[in-house]
Amino acid sequence: MIAYSCYQELKEYACNNLRQKEKENKNKIKIVVKYSKCSAAVGVKDIIDLFTQLIKEKNLQDVTLKITGCIGMCSMEPIIQIVFPDAKPVTYYRTDLDKARIIFLNHVIKGRIIYPWVLKQEEVTYNEYD
Fold this sequence. Notes:
about 130 residues, alpha+beta, four-stranded mixed beta sheet, about 40% helix
C-alpha cells in the first residue's frame, strides 16, 4: 500500500505541474518538433539546436520549443508545427536547416505562413495529444 500511495502522490504532483505549465504557455507561440529515429536520421537535432539558438538570440519570451515523439509519418520527416494561441497548428514537412530558419523568421517572427511547405490538413492522419 505504501508504494501505491507514493505512486498516487507522484501522479498528482506530475499532473499539477503539467496543468501549471499549460496555463503558463497558453498565450505563447509553440514550435513543436516531432522527434523520432527517422527524423534523427535526417537531421532534426540540428533543427532543434537552431530553434533554441534563434529563440535565445532574439530573446523571445513568448515562444516555446516543445519536443514530441513519433507520429508515424516517416517519409515526411522532419516535421515541425507552429502553433499560435487560439489558432490551428500549421505543420511543415521535410524541413531542413535552411527551411527551419526561414520558417522561424517568417512564420514565428512575422506571422507569415509559407504555404508551399505546409502539410495539408487532409494528409494528416494521426491523433494529436500534445
